[in-house]
From TrEMBL, chain A:
Protein origin, superkingdom: Eukaryota
InterPro entries: ELP6, P-loop_NTPase
Pathway(s) it belongs to: tRNA modification; 5-methoxycarbonylmethyl-2-thiouridine-tRNA biosynthesis
Subcellular localization: Cytoplasm; Nucleus
GO biological process: tRNA wobble uridine modification
Organism for this UniProt entry: Gambusia affinis (Western mosquitofish)
Protein name (record): Elongator complex protein 6
Gene3D superfamilies linked to this entry: P-loop containing nucleotide triphosphate hydrolases
Pfam families (alphabetical): ELP6 (PF09807)
Protein family per UniProt: Belongs to the ELP6 family.
Keyword tags: Cytoplasm, Nucleus, tRNA processing
Amino acid sequence: MFSELNSILNISPDSFTRGEFILVSDRQSDASFLIHHFLSFYLRARCKVCFLGLVQSFCHYSAVSQRLGVSLTQAKEKGQLVFFEGLKECLSVLTPKENNVESEAMNFLRDPTVGLRSLYEFVRSSVIGSGSLEEGAEQWGPSVLLVDDLSVLLSLGVDVGAVLDFSHYCRALVCSQMQGNMVMLVRCNGEEDDDDDGDVVSEVLLKGLTHQCNLSLHVQGLPTGYCKDIHGQMEVCWKTRQGDTPHLQKNLFQYKVYDKGASFFARGTSSAVL
Amino acid sequence: MAAPVNSVGKTSADRLQANCTSFQKKTRSKLISIPGTRPSVQNGQLLVSTGVTSLDYLLGGGLAVGTVLLIEEDRFDSYSRMILKYFLAEGVVCRHELFVATAQDNPDEILQELPAPILDDVAVPKPVEQPRLTGEPQDTLDAMKIAWRYQNLPKVQSALASSSRFGHYYDVSKTMEAEIRQAAKCHRFYLPDHITPSSAAHRVESYSALLKSLQEVIHREGFDLATPMSKSRNILRVGLHSLGSALWGDDLCCHDKPRHSHALTTFLYGLRALLRSSLLVAVVTLPSHLIQDRALMGNITRLCDNAIALESFKGSERETNPLYKDYHGLLYVRQVPHLNSLARQLPDHKDLAFKLKRKQFTIERLHLPPDLSETVSRVSRGEPVGVASACGSRASGTKNLDF
């Protein structure tokens, strides 16, 4: 986990707000380093994590988490982490064999109109877990759902309405019912002001999720172009309620991703510049 | 993940980098050495050469095993086809197995056009006008008197190359001899053999047929990482020509709003799943200039690991432009992957140009000569090269900031 990001967001593994929906989004950039941060953060906070890793293999996440100080294989063995590896499960649907059982959760690959109901059932079963705890099983903290990433479901043909429904169902389950947290990654392609040719579907998804979330981290490239020392800028947007009035607070940071972490700094204060 | 190099035994203290392995081996074994591969110096990934040494340098030493390189074709598919042939020829020379899939020409035609390797050329070819590749300061120059601040800066290397040899050189004026070519095992997938073009199944089934055929080859020949390591391992090089064109039954290139736009992306997702679990390297060429939907190109690029785009000068007004007379086209790096790590190896320069010589395909940093004319007239320049945009992170809101 990135300590600078923790201080920006005012959270720590010991104290963080529960029932939050954190939306991580990017525009023509790559915000997956934030997903790695949240994964190691919640594992350190001893939460029960359900991770839908749809775009990369388990070993990729495991290798990165190792550098951030968390072992995914150990967490899986202890029962703290439920890892859904989308790449491995998809082959059973895309290239079906006679003996192999098809993975239920990815059945939208066969017919995208079915929607994400089976995927939601998988999430539900892993978040609620088994009814009876075995003797000596460790008690974990609140449930957390992490999704990396939601936009690949759009690429695989799922309707944007189905994806929004899925996120709403998950939020109702994880944030409201179980009082846990949810982190989702959404990736956009086009420019923000593009009307006609733009990626309408991704924008609809992003807007819908931004409306639902409590905290939004939006990652973009620098407006001045490519720079090797500053990888981009991140906008943090909090939605809080003070009394009866909703309050929106925004903050802009620039970041650089290293091998073992990322550093965040105010605009213009990069070490390359000063 | 892309297959890393295993370290000896279980001493975890020695394994500092990339110690998660996708090799599910049960016994300790020696260091995996597959001919034609080498471990990366940066992160321990297993790399193969693409056949073009400049492209290897651009990709960070080579193409990592378990990843795919997407090449957006130039307008007449000449240079992208050339890079595909280099890739397959390198596989033949390194004794890897090949898998070629086409919908347009028979795979045998591509295999017969492979360039001949220059096998007796051991030393690095003498560069004619390029500066020396080592970074030693040149003491032969006199100490600079005016620009003395630049004295200690290293000399600019315009050609992209590393000091150690990896990969072979090819002579494009000759084709590979039949004996060398037939020594390599090659699997072919020619779409009209599997699906008749007029059938209703053609539209959506061509990609799944390709995926099934590829998986069958992987299982049969033992490229799967899950199979026990009884015999020696080899790499399968997959070359997919012109995916997304209309001959694959896709209407991505024909319509503005294609109806089955997710057929290709689903295939690329399945290909990524196969790649991460086997000893495979893939090169895919795509006629992106025919696809109108830029957002779809973004989705396709994100599902591939490395992505480059070629733009050749043939037929455009830049062919006669004196600024570009040394080059055959421009090369854009659209995406670099981050494999098993948070950071990725971003390229130093974004403006790259390539030229195809008889013995080498070089990719160089594009140098525009200084405009020393008295008048400030650049009418012959043509439209600018393009907004320098980061691969994977574009400039946002470029309209207001136009220097």
